[in-house]
Task: structure prediction
Amino acid sequence: MGTNLNEAVADLVTANHILFDQGVVDAFGHISVRHPEKPGCFLLSRAMAPSHVSAADIVEHDENGEPIDANGRAVYLERFIHAEIYRSRSDVTSVVHSHSPAVIPFGISSVALRPAFHMASFLDKVSRFEIRDGFGSETDLLIRDSEKGRYLAQALGAASVALMRGHGSVAVGRDIREAVYRAIYTEVNARIQTQAVVLGGVLEYLTSEEAAAATQSNASQTGRCWALWSEEARAKRAK
Result:
């Protein structure tokens, strides 16, 4: 994982490609990482399709989400998601915002997103963000400023994932590999849970104790996933 700026940029580029390849992002969605040498700042690509991101597209942002070195490059409108989560969560080193399709229904439904299998054990605690509660019913649902970003960060609390009604979700991690892992397995778990609901009958989700044990065990496995996903993404880009 990136311990200096060049490595952090390289990892961020790879993360963008992985998230696209795994169906978490498409033309929209973004991932950031804390600046390894300036913890108050973070790195985020310019506003573009994640699959096309290169090192030249990475922009440094300050603690308020303002670009430091944009040099005319368009930046993400929702950069405040990242700035305010980093401000409120010192344990978070990477943030993913996506509109992954299987997750969206859980954001608009009263059905709770719960850990259906051990790889998604971190979903034992999932937060919900309702923009209407703080800003009324006439927003476009986007996190356009610091105030909305702070409200989202408060809703996320200590959880790993927050659902955003009609908009998508955010997933956070202690490093970029964990954030990517969580974003991907949130989407996978949503598909599995939906399939299980369709089957009917009584559903047996992970208990809190099982989820805690599995989360601890899985923490050492994100490197294996990263190696596979990055290899797959590189192979597809090479075709």
Notes: The domain at 5-238 is CATH 3.40.225.10 (L-fuculose-1-phosphate Aldolase). The radius of gyration is 17 Å.
